[in-house]
Amino acid sequence: MAEGYLMNISLRMDHNHRRLCADALSKRDVSSTTTKKLEELFQRGHSPSSALDTLKYNLQEEEGERYCLTAADRAMVPDIQFCYRLYYKIFKKAYGAPSGESMVEDLKTRITHYNDEQGSVCAQMEKLDGQVVVAICTPLMQRIHRGLQQSGELVFVDSSGNGDRQNIMIMQEGLCQRSGSRA
Fold first, then answer.
1. CA angle, 143 as apex, 137 and 147 as ends, to 5°?
2. Which of 79, 88, 111, 166 has the fewest beta carbons under 10 Å from its own?
3. Radius of gyration over alpha carbons of the chain, in Å?
4. Using CA atoms, how far apart are residues 108 and 33, in angstroms rounded to an integer?
5. What pLDDT digit, counting tens, does each position of 167-176 carry?
């Protein structure tokens, strides 16, 4: 031993467990390549669960019979909780707050920005009986209203039955009334 030191430490780098078994692989960090693949899938409109399913399917195509070994590796196939955390981290950064007053304020800011971009009032927002109502008349709609008098007599409701993550329904409406008819 060297003079002045009370002990000598030697590292052998031996593991007390198997490093390439399924249990050890399931605890690895998700690789940056896998994270980028998930981000691309989210940008294409996938939910966290459909993105994970697509990732697994693509991996089955690539790996073939080795897929069962690869699927145990969290670096290649993350758990669903990781997918949800990544999705909401990206979504919140890109789209602002998901609900509450901060969402309403964010929506007001986006409407103001949209109106400034268009150079006219194309969208307005109002709160009625605790519900947020947004009316939008795009520049194309405005052009049609100016050029075609009957367009002001048209009502069209497009409701696909899908809601967003707060179960908010978006419906496009217009009014249609035949001349001479009583409605």
1. 130
2. 166
3. 28
4. 37
5. 555 555 554 4
